[in-house]
Amino acid sequence: RPSNAGRPSNAGRPSKGASAREKKAARPSKPGRPSKAPSVAGAEKTEKPHTRPTHRPPPGPYKDPAGTVPADFGVESIVAAQVGKVLDLLKMAKDNGDLPEVIRVGTACSGTDSPVLGTVLDSEVLAAAGHQGLVKFEHVMSCEIEPFKQAFLARNYPGAVLLPDITKLTPKDKMGKTAPRPYYTENVLGAKVEVPDCDIFVAGTVCKDFSMRKSVYRMDLEDMGKSGQTFFAAVEYIFANRIKFSVFENVCNSPWSKMREYITGVLEISSLGKSSAGGKKVVTSRKTTGEDERFVFVLKPDGQLEVETVSRNAGVRVGSILLNVRDRNGSERPARLPKTSSCGVGGKIDIDELVNELDILPSDFLVFDTALQGYYAHKIKVDSKKYGLPQTRERGYMLVWHESQGDAGLGEKWAELVQELEYPLQYSLSEFLLPDDDERVRRFREVLRGPLGRRAKEDVESAWKGDWEHDENCKDVARAKKYHKDLGHSPEVRTVTGWGKNGIFKGNAALWPELLGVFDSRQRDQIESFTAECAAEERPRDPIHSSYVWDISQNVGIASPYNRPGVTGCLTPGGWMFMPNRGRVMLGYEKLICQGIPVSRLALGMESEVQLSDLAGNAMSLPVVNACILAVLALKPFARLREAERRQCMRAMRDAIPLEPEATPLCASAREMLEPKEGTCVAFKALAQMWQEAELSSILCKCESSGSISAASELLQCAGCGISICRICAPLVATDSHELIARKVERPTAPCGFMQKLRCAAPPRLLLPSSAVEALQPARAPADMAFSLAQVRRGEGCWILRYVPEAERRPSAELKLFVGKSRRHDGFEGLRGELRFFTKVSNQGGKVPAVARMRLPANGKRPVWERRGAADEVDLKMTYSDLMPSYRAELGLKAWRNETFPGTVQIQHPQLGGTYTRLSCRGTVNQGALWRGDRGFLYLKPDVDRTGPDVPTLSESPAADEAESFALASLDTAWSPLSRAQFVRAQQVVWEKVAAVHFHILDEVLLVTPGEPMWLTSEAKRAPVNVASLALPGDIMANLVPGCTTKWQELAPEGANGGQTLRHFMEAVASTLLRDGIHESFRDWQTLEGNGWGACQVCAPQPPASRWGKRGTRCYNNEESVDFELRMRQRPKPWYIRVKFARDGGDHGARAEFAVRPVSAAHRAAAALQGAASQEDGITCEWRVVEPTQELESAPGSFQVNNSEMFKPAPRPSAFLKDLYERQAKALRRMQDIEAGKVPFDQQEISEHQLHGVSWLLEARATATRKLPGGVLADQMGGGKTVTTLALVASDLDGKRKAPPPCNAENPQCKATLILCPANLVRQWDAERKTFTGSALKAVVIESANDLAKVTIADMQEADVVIACFDLLAEDKYLNNL
Questions:
Q1: Rounded Cα–Cα distance for residues 564 and 32 (Å)
Q2: What one-character DSSP code corresponds to residue 1042?
Q3: pTM summary value
Q4: Which of 471, 828, 1159, 1261 could form an SS bridge with 824, CB 3.0 to 4.6 Å?
């Protein structure tokens, strides 16, 4: 049980700033960091080198998500379980009047305001369970100082008062004391508002000063860094407003004991003599000398003792009055000096003398006047992974409550409740991550490939001079060398990143080359070090094939290569969390998911990747803080229970059923629609024959994993492991160990075309008869199962079709069909399938195996289904020869430099036997352990989550992800290439052909018809146009869209479960929509009538006017900016989806309509045209709906810029002294025509809007016929561009001088042409002016801000040309005078 009694001493422990290696030395017995293994010299010895034990005991296998996405429902399930546990206590609290009618919640420094999101989920869970209104929450206040987080909070919590600075919540009077209520302060818009009161206040005070990452200078509360300022401000707000309950959150290393003392006013005497580490002050601040100030009191005339100075390990303010001394039983006596004391009025007495004068025992407490505020505090330590999240995030939470709510014992009971609200982690980290083909991952990768990524790579290469390893001036080099030395690793062996001199690298094929290019040398070396350390465990692991998360933003001495299996380490705002098995870093969006934030509910704006990571790193884990809040709500009735009743209540909480809706069973009307028809063999055969197209459009190189197809016309494919690499990526990938075969290919430019073709060929619905269900799973109640196509995904060498049962939100089964080519030794080409059933028994832990598999070669006639039988236990006799270096030896681990793997393994067995020869493939297979024989391959199938050992596997394919279809046997996990066991027990996989297993094609129940325009408002120009209507069974709709009624209801990603519902619905109907396509009437451009395009304030709100501030910064009015952002969010959506039942109950079917708002999209396109508001009548707009197979209008392509040959030469300007060349004169004529407005051009802007889950794209095109306003004079170097430009300036010089524009303070204009150029060309321009015009052109030449200061307004008015350098615009003298 968490307790506040006592403070643990840290004597003998390493300092908080110590490195991980120093901690290891201080704790030599810790199994996670033993000393390095001794070197083994000479020939191979029988004695094994000292190996590292496995770092942490692995947990049990995680559950299979059973075809669902935990990121979609994970936090909702956790909250439902938590609410279900305290439901009875909440009812009791409501009946007893313990809860106010509306619970007002305020937050401060919580980043994403996850406490508020938790209360929203609580309310939804209660409402869904029929307890709506049992607990009502109101979010009254958020406090955040960072501007981008303020914008985030304003978008997502528009009803709350948003304040910028927690330190200004309680204004001070002239004496420095808290002013009387009401309190007023400025909100983020600068408006004066009243500071709200609240019932529950959640404060995530700044943790940066207390962080363990600050290894040198960690500040204390009294240093008044950000951590101290925010804490004291929060305490002042609590005291001033008499807040009933408050929850503080911070890192475990925070000075929690002092924080409690500052709040309660009670100081434990025994704590004063202890070390200040471990929740107390670590004296490493710049502001102190390392010696604590003495705890000294001064005697006042009234006999009270006032604190004059405070030791740094005491949470007492200077000026506090010591009231009483409290013994361990709670009895108090006044803290008055005896008359015999030698200390007189105004005299000083330190704490040691006071203890003697008042006979204070070490177990006593000092009570100060802060205790009159009447607050108690209790701190607990929690870990996010104990609340269902795949993250080790240890944090301290402290409950602060007023004495009116209960006595000091309330804290222990709150801690018990919080602990009972824990939720076991169900799924591993990999299930919470985005797939590599997700749009967010694709955008991140495009940024790395774009200008920003190239610039970052260039910066790294320019800073990388020679070999970083030999840079003696870099402290990171010394740290890295020490790490390699302690590990016993040869630093020159770099098998993962292959980095070398001057930034050159050739990385593993699994890593993103564009990401590896922006890593610096330290980070690349850290990846090598951590890879070697993971291999040095007792059971070696290969991080390229196992799930690890490394924070490479920290040095090797601080970050750890280990994290709990299936769990990431603590996510920090600036951490680069590298995942070697995925070849990339964790995105900010994924970090939010790992914090339990329901991202689909958030209105994200233009936050950058850095800002999203900041939001996630500073957020409170939602299930954790929600448990703390629910425990507060249930605290009073729980505290009133007697001890036996509390124990019974806690047992009931453990057995509580989560308040989650169950899936609707298949109704009778739907069963009647299951009319199977023949044709499955024909359809499956058609899919099998598409294997070649499927392979060519699949992922054939790591660079294609995010949705693209390489432009390379040649692929390199390994004859051993089967890995393929495009010719473009080959120079950046380590391929020396592979037997590569060049292959010329003609591939499509994008995969979407084949996806459309595949959807049209695949059966949309399949029926598995009850006889087949019974044959495959006898324990299951026999019933027909209708499957619908839910997803089409692109895989490596194949495409994957995923079918799930209809009318089930959480699938009880899953059918996967693979179309393409496998990496089997004979290169299986065609169609294969895997069928799984998910039950409570089969899904207790670990991946659920397939109960049946199917194969249909491209030249086959019928699909062959096989059922998984009971595995046969067999004994294999194995002999070994041709020894060669092992995985650890090849990694450069000196202790294992003589360790070997067998080059040849001879297996004796009738079906599995043969000679298996080790292939040279490295990096693409686990631990480089791959042997090929006549009957298949032998390799170590990695346990990706590391919850168990890697499994030696005999398989027809070398790819571990194809083992489900092609595995032959699994060897005893005690065997490894190092064990050399002669007899090995194995489980031989048995597949039995079954004629009873077959699928039928069902009639399509989802019918698409082109719709007619539907009118939602009387304003016709904004009305949606119905593109397609969909009819579907009512029971399917009831499960896809919970809460659907007979009234039209819009499906949108916002709101309760909006994102999940929309995604599930679109997955279910996408196949039908894409198969039937868009009516041809919508595919061609259609003109929209009307004018004023781009000026609609509803569809295209105009941004606020900009103003110029100091130093040339652009400024906006805060209130106008927030209003603009809200109006942007309220714009009519380009796509509109609505659903309803035909009649009550859903038995008579349902309907869905998919509509577009072309007018809204057209306004957005027109608004992007330059000058749209001023020339609105000259804009025309068109629209169309594009299918994936259609060519996009905005697709990039080649274009041509014409030269000036068709123009007549212009005459020489009168002010010019020399003639122009003919091509210069023609260019001059063209430029003169442009400036005279004689050259028209069509300016176009296209806005594109995709239908969620379907590749349909609404395109709106706005065109404005304008006069060309300018151009670019392009010519080869030395072609006379300067002369031609001066000729343009000199043209019609007299006309320009006759009508000079007015120049005054309101209109500071002049007729001169401004020329900006590099500083070294300023004088060259002026020299050219004199050469060609003499003194005809009057010039002002400005090379610096000093030159500009000498120029008058009259000089500017008289000048024809002003020549200045670019650097002037960045000079302080110039900027400060704007």
A1: 11
A2: T
A3: 0.84
A4: 828
